Amino acid sequence: MLNRDYMNNADPAEVAAAGMSIVDRLQHYKPHAQVLAAACVFLSLAEYYRVPAQDAFQVAKNVMNGVEGKRPEFRAVDMYIRNEL
Prior knowledge:
By secondary structure, this protein is mainly alpha-helical. The chain is built from five helices and two strands, in the order H-H-H-H-E-E-H. Helix 2 packs parallel to helix 5. The chain is globular.
């Protein structure tokens, strides 16, 4: 069972590291498959953990962004995507 308190208070560094791992694996596929695979996994996880997808998106935005904009960990994920995919 998913603990929503943990989700709402997730460690940004841990979340970004997991994101890097996912991007690392996705780079072996074509761009259209990357986007769809990420979306399908997201939807499957949200359904499995009974988290409305919109709620997960909002929490993700909160984790990714701090007071001064996007957190450094997620800027690194963005750069990895731009340079590796």
